[in-house]
Design a protein that fits this description.
The protein is elongated and about 65 Å long. It has a four-stranded antiparallel sheet. The chain is built from eight helices and four strands, in the order αααααββααββα. With about 220 residues, it is an alpha+beta fold. This is DUF5105 domain-containing protein.
Length: about 220
Amino acid sequence: MKGPVRILFLLLLFSIQSLSAQTKALNPEQVFGMYFDAFVKQDENTLHKLNAYLSPFLGAENTYTIDLKRSNNEEVNNLTNVFLTNLSKETAAVCKTEAGAYFDALLSNLKKTRYVVKEIKEVKNEYADNSLVTELNVDLHFSVPAKIPELKLEDAKTMKAEELKNYLKNKTEAFTKSEKKVTVKQVFKLYQIKKEGRTYYWNGGPQELVWKLNELYFKNLNH
């Protein structure tokens, strides 16, 4: 086979393989993994892959256009501002940088959550006739700080600025270590959509996954 012909053949082969990979049906665990990596680990590449998967049956206009980095920064800023507004202006000014670093460490630690799918089953969709929902029973593995004592907001209000500043620094460092391991069980749902002989899986939006995960994470924090 001559050189140019061989190159053309290889390009055509790779194109066919690529098309086959793009159209290959995914199983529920793979789809859940994309949701998890996109919205918990906030991985932009996975978000693009998830949108490519959803587009054929939802339409490109119904995929996710969220800026994950901007969303994370906004959440850090919101938590920081809520915390600071409960302090005196003087204390808030002194502790602003440390408070921001603390909440950034808290949310960055959440991104490190791991999961193990323990069971997958199909149940009837209570909202639609002749439709099924895939339920994934999942073990979520958190790493959280073990030694820093809880600081109630009322106590923070009465602390001196430097004292609170040092507490926030210690708490931030504790989140970077997070030596305590916590495992919780949770059920997540994927709705099945049939199209052109294929079964697609859709979370209905990332809210259920993110809200459940955040709730479980904050419940298990040793503040």
